[in-house]
Amino acid sequence: MATVVDIDLMADVQKFGAADVNACFSCGNCTALCPLADNDATFPRRIIRYAQVGLTDELLGSKELWTCYHCGLCSESCPTEADPGEFMAAARRYAIASYEPTGLARVLYTKPVIGTIIAVVVALFFAGFMLSQAQLGGIDAPRLALFDFVSNDLIHWMGIVVMALMFLAGAWGVVRMVRAIGKRDGVTLKDTFGSGAAWTRTVRALWDSVGVESLGQKRFRDDCHDEQVVEPLWRRRWLVHALTIWGFLMLFAATLIDYGLELLGIKETGTPIPIWYPSRALGTVGGLALMYGVTVFMLGRWKRWSTSQATSQSSDWLLLTLLWLTGFTGFVIEVALYVTTPPVWGYWFFLVHVAIAMELLLMLPFTKFAHVMYRPVALFFYSLSQQKHATAA
């Protein structure tokens, strides 16, 4: 089968941030130093060559692209200052834009002004829509309970629509990614589900990709760092990354628990509850973890603490800003909820919180947040490959 070469591939990837990678002459220094490189993951050298010679299918089908955590060692050691670490980040942005079907990700990544306008318009749309359905009284009218300001049913169904749209766009992108990796690696359904041994490998790969790597951060924690540089524990990237992920997941779980308690008739959404209630305790801990992680990430990019944080794209700041505002407004709402008479500012923070949370979910497949979809899938195939090589050996 003929190989299709895209002579414009490198120029296209450069639009996503890889400005200096043309200086790379494939010396292999980055691969030799990378703590995550092995016989099946010669990155970033091989990925850079794919872009340089225009092999789009190979680039998009490279699971190794997502096993990189951008520690920055390759960029620090590159003799031509080609910044391979930033290239890998740009290639992931390019991959996200190539997987999703709408073209929105490309705009958000390559046109920062237009992308910012789109983000603001989406948030204003959600806020305006809810405000148009809100129960507004006169100055002397008794104030509604904070969570009665906008109907719970409206927020519930709006959330379902947003989740459905997010799922459709995300599923489309993941399917395209799986097809690209499967085509490049020659993986078929028979390899994953065709026998008892295949099922065993699949279950092991799921555990490795989700439990060990995505949630446990094992390789990020143990391998992806410069042994000669000791960062203080409070700002180690694996820890900050883990707290951000776990914080968001705990907040999501707290929301589901809160809604479940309402369905069971135990409590209504938005009513004050003691700190030891499951949803309140989980949400508080999750919110603190998220706020800590995102705040440290923002400080790191602002002060450029490391090579990996020396270059920031508008898309990086967009995600961090949305996450930070979601956590901050959530805590403000908690304060307003326990005030005897709901303060006027509480209603506005409630409106902003829901609008941004909806936007965050809706735009998940199109922003850097899409890593939560694509990285576990790539790590799944990476684990399958590792098992295959171990068996062959």
From TrEMBL:
InterPro entries: 4Fe4S_Fe-S-bd (IPR017896), 4Fe4S_Fe_S_CS (IPR017900), HdrC_iron-sulfur_subunit (IPR051460), Helical_ferredxn (IPR009051), NarG-like_sf (IPR036197). Residues 57-82 form the 4Fe-4S ferredoxin-type domain. Keywords: 4Fe-4S, Iron, Iron-sulfur, Membrane, Metal-binding, Oxidoreductase, Transmembrane, Transmembrane helix. The chain crosses the membrane at residues 113-134, 154-175, 238-257, 277-297, 317-339, 345-366. SUPFAM superfamilies: alpha-helical ferredoxin, Respiratory nitrate reductase 1 gamma chain. Pfam families: Fer4_8. This is 4Fe-4S dicluster domain-containing protein.
